[in-house]
Amino acid sequence: MLVKASELAKRSGVPAATIKHYVREGLIQPALTSRNMAYYDPALVPRIQRIKELQRTRFLPLRVIKNVLDEGDMESGDETVAATIARMLVQTAPAGARSREELVASGMSLDQLDWLESLGILTPIDQAGERVYAGDDLEILRVLGAARRAGITTDMLPVTVLAEYGEALRNLVRTELRLYREGVLPRASAADISALTEAATTLSERLVVLLRRKLLVPTLRALSQRAARATATSRSQPAPVPSRTTSKPERTERPRRDPGPRTRGRR
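Above: the chain's sequence. Below: its structure in token form.
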């Protein structure tokens, strides 16, 4: 027999608002929905409890928990790495939290918040049924606010550029994790994985910052030189000669003189 979210919350010991957040994040799904109500299979209770346990004890983000529960093929080493990274991110994240309503009241566009969430750049957490931004998410929004206050307008730096940032950094993260999984995990003992992951996470973040600093000026000069060469090339090209069309001057007919009446010649 299907049950409502309130009954599911009672059986699992997890607040109904949190269960609804799990639904939004795709971790669980209602078995039946009507216009104003959703009904759930009571068999979801162990899954909900497992999600909450992984959040509380392993510091795993919901997207990682979803992979662990759905795929079931994540190696123990990968799960340990994910848990360690998640714990470090929680510990090193800036303090503070603000709700969507507070951010909108301070001038943040609701459409921009939704757009950043759709990209996965912002991942709000559920607190007593309210969507809240905290940690690195809140710091990203603070940086955007600081840019606006410094005079960098939305025309100069629209929030949509974060999509390009996100894609570039996802590729970087994929490379980092692939190298770590292929190089470190096969050669590390189970007891060393957590410590090695902490060291690699910290060092990798510092290395990326330093490499970016190192590459900024040379890359800017290379872009400037490329633009200068393109400009010089365009200037050296001969200007196109306008095509000339040769046409005969229009012939104007002279008016004929009226000879008058003909006269016979003298004999």
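The two ends are 139 Å apart (CA to CA).
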